[in-house]
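## retry 2 of 3
previous attempt timed out at serialization; input unchanged, resubmitting
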Amino acid sequence: MFTPSSRPTVMSDFDLPITALTPQRHRRAVAQLVNEERRERGLPALRYASSLRVSARAWAVVSVRNSRFDHGNWTSRVLRFPFILAGRPRGRVVGENLAWATGAFSTPREIVRDWMSSPGHRANILRNWQYGAVWSSPDAPEPGRQIDGVTVVHHFGRKLA
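## retry succeeded, writing output
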């Protein structure tokens, strides 16, 4: 006989570590949680921009490959963003949130919780962006931590009037 107490516990993608998810599911969950934070504060959800995905992926790959965790030369990097290049001559602006974690801290919920606990990351999430894209790489940018780690890059964008 099946009783409620014998039901298996089903966790949402929000609460699963990177080792239990595909990178695509991890990215989707992070993006959904960021949009929930925005909606709770009366802000519109970010629309997906494949051009921001390209730049987010590129920086995640560089971060993991080179065991680095920083924004690099932001001014120089931004000039090569496909989102920025596509907006010329009118102009566009972009922003970036980075995260890395291992094990139980690699869940989408933990990543977004950490961002919302940081004044700079929180401000980025709640800015007047129009577009966003997340890239999750199942690796950490710290030597010896790669096995159960994740590096997350979230790029934001806005078209100027």
